[in-house]
What we know:
Layout: E1 7-12, H1 21-31, E2 35-40, E3 42-47, E4 50-56, H2 59-70, E5 78-80, H3 86-96, E6 103-105, H4 120-130, E7 136-137, H5 141-148, H6 155-168, E8 174-176, E9 185-190, E10 195-200, H7 211-224, H8 229-245
Parallel strand pairs: 1-2, 1-5, 5-6, 6-7
Antiparallel strand pairs: 3-4, 8-9, 9-10
Helix pairs in contact: 1-7, 2-3, 3-4, 5-6, 7-8
Amino acid sequence: MSNQIVSAVTIAGTDPSGGAGIQADLKTFQEREVYGMSVITSVVAQNTMGVKAVEHLPIDFIEKQFDAVWEDITPHAVKTGMIATIEMMELIAKKLTNRKIPFVIDPVMIAKSGDPLMEEKSREVIRDILLPLATVVTPNVPEAEFLVGFSINSQKDTEKAAKVLVHQLGAKAAVVKGGHLDGDAKDVLYDGAQFDYFSTKRIDTPHTHGTGCTFSAAITAELAKGKSINEAVGLGKEFITEAIQHSLLLGKGNGPTNHWGYRLKGLPNRGEME
Length: 274
């Protein structure tokens, strides 16, 4: 084991109410004992009830943020969240091509409230230019349906979608999350060779704001520390499950998850690189 400080960067939009986006990612990195950094793509006026307004930052300023991080503290892993425009995606693709670090894509398209967070044309571009760079992509069912072009109504469908995301769209591995399907919350991981399943009992709560951000950030943190994809997804699943189980009961809408909920179970942190 090494005592090297582990770092990760999130490239995403903001959430001033703290439950999703950059704020959720940085909280998750901190809880997983990874030094968190950020490149902000969009400033979003949102809370647990919905999105009020969105302002996209200029492309040249996003690039300056990216360069400021990499020229000083090179991260051990990177994740993307809300990438709203084609220009942003093209910039990120250019910047991440040939960088030999894990890259997790959370293909954020719609907020928990139902508000769109990505231009429709951009959804096609994320599929075409960013997915081939991904170490892991983590779509929920609606996001996966758009990316693969067919309906997902069963575990067989999630398995089929995961295969398409890897073999046809180019991701190294895909986690298709089962939260929108009936029954237990069962996520399907496919790494190009085999399936693994991560299942928990469904938790009856409306307080799931930021679950996708938090889950993918936890996976990113574990990959940064040298975990395998399977280990990282398993630890991420434990982390997000406890975050939902011990929700904070905040907000008037879909409240945020509890980023320190895992402490109540005693899930160990693993803050050193392997």
